[in-house]
Amino acid sequence: MFLKEEYITRREKLKKLMTHGLIIFFGNEESSINFKDNHYPFRQDSTFLYFFGLNEPGLIATIDLDTNDEIIFGDNLSIDDIVFTGPVESIEEQAHNVGVSQISPSLGINGYVAEAIAKGKQIHFISPYRPDHVLKLASILNVSTTEVRDKESVELIKAIVKLRSIKSSEEIKEIEKAVNTTVNMQYKAMEMATEGLTEANLYGAVQDVALANGNSTSFPTIMTINGQILHNHYRGNTLKKGDMVLCDCGAETYSCYAGDLTRTFPVDTKFTHKQKEIYDIVYDSYITAVNLLKPGQLFKNIHLASCKKITEGLMALGIMKGDVDKAVELGAHTVFFQCGLGHMLGLDVHDMENLGEQYVGYTDTLKQSTAFGFKSLRLGKVLEEGMVLTVEPGIYFIPELIALRKSENMYMEFIDYEVLEHYKDFGGIRIEDDFLITKDGYRKLGNRLPTTSNEIEEFRKHKVRF
Amino acid sequence: MFLKEEYITRREKLKKLMTHGLIIFFGNEESSINFKDNHYPFRQDSTFLYFFGLNEPGLIATIDLDTNDEIIFGDNLSIDDIVFTGPVESIEEQAHNVGVSQISPSLGINGYVAEAIAKGKQIHFISPYRPDHVLKLASILNVSTTEVRDKESVELIKAIVKLRSIKSSEEIKEIEKAVNTTVNMQYKAMEMATEGLTEANLYGAVQDVALANGNSTSFPTIMTINGQILHNHYRGNTLKKGDMVLCDCGAETYSCYAGDLTRTFPVDTKFTHKQKEIYDIVYDSYITAVNLLKPGQLFKNIHLASCKKITEGLMALGIMKGDVDKAVELGAHTVFFQCGLGHMLGLDVHDMENLGEQYVGYTDTLKQSTAFGFKSLRLGKVLEEGMVLTVEPGIYFIPELIALRKSENMYMEFIDYEVLEHYKDFGGIRIEDDFLITKDGYRKLGNRLPTTSNEIEEFRKHKVRF
């Protein structure tokens, strides 16, 4: 948690960006696994954390833009609870810690909002991503559960995005802490990987590093010898010579800031010749993108520059052919690079994704594409100083996708499906790092990790950390 | 997953226990952490797993008791999904694997149920513990979200409890696998613990063992130097000489069966004299309870026998006083042992808790008490061959509870609050093992772990596993 003053300042800035009405912020509830009282690790809503900092379940906060009233709604624990949870600060103390002086029992929220509605106040809230919030909102607003999502406040969303997009120095410190734990997670996997271990063995060890040094992971770790499956969560395979391991993982600090890094490395101490060729294309694409990072650049253009590098590289290998610019314009590269170059990073690993990518990564005039390969580009807009984002190009040979595109006779002008046949079982490679946009360019966050194919091989041979 | 025949047999048994109507089984959905597509590790609903075995999100199954129709509702993945998830078996193949021949797209469920309602069929379902199921049920049954819970089928619940309470030999093998991984988690913590490490360090290492050998943990691991907090999830404390560590953890196998064990051990190689005295009382209570395990015994009586042992022991130390039987009858021991002796174990760590403890642990004539210290006794009824359950007595010195009871002048006849003053900061001790009820008694599940205070000290000194 930051100092009380930080939260007060954030709320003041929010109020200045908005006009009238009552804002409701829903803190998260516990989330049940297989019965009510068996809970997944609690994760507070990030916007609630940003403005109110409190990391306990079951809280709601309101800001009345007209009267300036700020209230935290929540219930103190009974002795029956305390036996299980231990002593917890009272709601009053918790509210005081973040500069809020008014509190109310949870049940008060319905009457309070009803009164505001009766007075004709606009009610501002962000669209819920958890079903319990849909139920709560329907009850509080007295509308059906299907109507809830239509009533989100775009004014509120835009104000939150404006504030959360530019990270303060305290936030950057926290993100860098998360990245550094993530660096250690990556080192752990690269140190440990050896023939005969399973993906699950590496997965467990990497989770250990995250859990021993912070809250948790910022998303479920991807630890796979099938890197071509972008969000692969199976981990039953045994590592064998010739395989590559793709490890995409992120730590979450105690203050809930996220890291997000990917490395792909051979189970042997060296890549095969074929693996190294593809790896070096991905690295080329990565470094091209990184060198373009600076305020004023359109991230969509950086994405396209990295797509072109991938296309050029695959053309050099004979997998692709024809005109690079035209190939990328028509999306031929999406047979190999199906997703976006990167996304913002902060309290969420895809920062603010719940607020809507059209507001977070795009603008009123720059719309997100719905085309295959572009719809997963979560960030397209102009970069600004203080943004934190990932750069994560990759090349993925997905047998099902290749077969589909071939059967559709797609991209015949740009893809040599016969050459491609030799890569069908290749797998996938991704390189990902986290960057802060500075006044003149960028700063890569966190301690150094092996990144080029030579550095990776060097590390796999000698296991010496930078 | 078990053989297809196992699921067919289970469903046949269920049909025989019921009469008329349509049963709906809801498989679980993905559960969002901090934005829609960031998911907690998927956990299938246990009843769905028991009867249909499929471990993918978004499935619904129905059994029409009158026509014998069994249908699985679900949707095949598109290429956009497969890029992220890799190839997944079709719904048809999945259904075939568990002996179901009819399938339907997800959207079909609303019309199918509406038709059944129109025909006057009773609709059977179990009360949802996840809010997305409340939303779904309200939509399917065309009732308000607040009405959903009132409509659960007690006939269905009782039939499920009857079947799931008695474990098959295949299930027992899976539970024992979970217990054995849990044994290794316990060994890991006891091997590793040393002055200067944090609770989080041990927590991470224990998670590693669970994740490297199965699905996950069966509940969030409790790893704490404050064992008196029954479900403590804070893990920021540094271990120091004189502390005890309470580790309560359970592995979940890939087939989703649970283990659940607790050990309490000193950070030093030896307990202090005071710690050993309390430990030995808990062990006495544990072994008394274990020796009473056999078919025909009322578990509530075993709980009371263990409470009496605790009371006797605390009387010998001068913390309690007066008549043992009367003290337990009036609940004086609940100042030190606030929870139940044990619970059933299976696909859920508190097996079937979502079906309602009154149905799982009690009967129409034996009702669950609502008194403090008894309402957490999840199991009270007569033991039967094939049940699997935990035995987990403990002594917990909870400063807030002691202060409250003293201020209320409660149990003055049975508690010497002056002597108790010297134990206020003692902490808490629990010992927990998992047992199968056999024809003549019981079998302790899993490999051997140090259990007595001498065995624990021996292990902490020499770190030699049994």
From TrEMBL, chains A, B:
Signal peptide: none annotated. It catalyses: Release of any N-terminal amino acid, including proline, that is linked to proline, even from a dipeptide or tripeptide. Residues 2-134 form the Aminopeptidase P N-terminal domain. Keywords: Aminopeptidase, Hydrolase, Manganese, Metal-binding, Protease. Its cofactor is Mn(2+). CDD domains: Prolidase. This is Xaa-Pro aminopeptidase. It comes from Flavivirga aquimarina. The lineage of its organism: Bacteria, Pseudomonadati, Bacteroidota, Flavobacteriia, Flavobacteriales.
